[in-house]
């Protein structure tokens, strides 16, 4: 009788193992692309596959992760790291390997293309390029950082942005200088570059040196 019970228990264990969910994991990502997509067997309590995207409130690349999770953990969240706010969007599904397509749900033809500008002065950009927006940042934008101290120049930036951050003005202080950040969004390809010509390299370097000199002058 004991041998029969042990056999039943072993058979039940095999059945449970065979029915466990399989999900993709990815811990090696760069620029939203997965370089190591590996299927894994979830534990008994992990009944969902998930895709998570952490989008920051500043121009920082999205952080993405895939794997197994419990149904109760399938929810969005917010937080901050070193003063930078972020939003976590978590998408779950319940069939084997269902979280692969969720990692890149939009094809290249459906994604918005925007101008980028990491450094700009007086409404003109130093280095202009383009980028394809991710699902968490579906808008093009141009932004301006203006200080309330006359000797500090205003700065400009462009790129892709989350909808929750569009068409907003934020204020704050850096040391003793107050500042305001304004972001304006649009939703068609390359719509954020028409009124922002590129600044010649020599002019931009000259402006940077002048700004640095003014900070040290008396």
TrEMBL record:
<dbReference type="InterPro" id="IPR046354">
    <property type="entry name" value="SPACA4/Bouncer"/>
</dbReference>
<feature type="signal peptide">
    <location>
        <begin position="1"/>
        <end position="20"/>
    </location>
</feature>
<protein>
    <recommendedName>
        <fullName>UPAR/Ly6 domain-containing protein</fullName>
    </recommendedName>
</protein>
<keyword id="KW-1015">Disulfide bond</keyword>
<dbReference type="GO" id="GO:0098552">
    <property type="term" value="C:side of membrane"/>
</dbReference>
<dbReference type="InterPro" id="IPR016054">
    <property type="entry name" value="LY6_UPA_recep-like"/>
</dbReference>
<keyword id="KW-0325">Glycoprotein</keyword>
<dbReference type="GO" id="GO:0035036">
    <property type="term" value="P:sperm-egg recognition"/>
</dbReference>
<keyword id="KW-0449">Lipoprotein</keyword>
<dbReference type="Pfam" id="PF00021">
    <property type="entry name" value="UPAR_LY6"/>
</dbReference>
<comment type="similarity">
    <text>Belongs to the SPACA4/bouncer family.</text>
</comment>
<dbReference type="GO" id="GO:0005886">
    <property type="term" value="C:plasma membrane"/>
</dbReference>
<keyword id="KW-0336">GPI-anchor</keyword>
<feature type="domain" description="UPAR/Ly6">
    <location>
        <begin position="112"/>
        <end position="206"/>
    </location>
</feature>
<keyword id="KW-0732">Signal</keyword>
<feature type="domain" description="UPAR/Ly6">
    <location>
        <begin position="21"/>
        <end position="109"/>
    </location>
</feature>
<keyword id="KW-0472">Membrane</keyword>
<dbReference type="InterPro" id="IPR045860">
    <property type="entry name" value="Snake_toxin-like_sf"/>
</dbReference>
<keyword id="KW-1003">Cell membrane</keyword>
């Amino acid at each position: 009788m004991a041998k029969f019970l042990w056999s039943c228990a072993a058979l039940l264990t095999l059945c449970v193992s065979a029915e466990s969910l399989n999900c993709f994991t990815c811990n090696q990502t760069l620029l939203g692309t997965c370089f190591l997509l590996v299927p894994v067997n979830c534990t008994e309590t992990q009944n969902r596959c998930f895709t998570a995207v952490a989008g920051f409130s500043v121009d920082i690349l999205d952080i993405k992760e895939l794997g197994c999770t419990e149904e109760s953990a399938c929810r969005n969240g917010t937080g901050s790291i070193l003063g930078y706010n972020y939003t976590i969007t978590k998408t779950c599904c319940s069939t084997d390997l269902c979280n692969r397509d969720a990692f890149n749900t939009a094809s290249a033809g459906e994604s918005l293309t925007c101008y980028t500008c990491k450094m700009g002065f007086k409404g003109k950009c130093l280095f202009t390029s383009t980028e394809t927006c991710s699902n968490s940042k579906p808008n093009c934008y141009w932004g301006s950082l203006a200080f309330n101290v006359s000797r500090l120049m205003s700065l400009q930036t462009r790129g892709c942005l989350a909808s929750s951050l569009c068409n907003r003005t934020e204020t704050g202080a850096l040391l003793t200088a107050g500042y305001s950040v304004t972001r304006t969004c649009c939703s068609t390809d390359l719509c954020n570059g028409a009124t922002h010509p590129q600044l010649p390299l020599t002019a931009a370097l000259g402006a940077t040196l002048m700004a640095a000199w003014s900070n040290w002058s008396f």
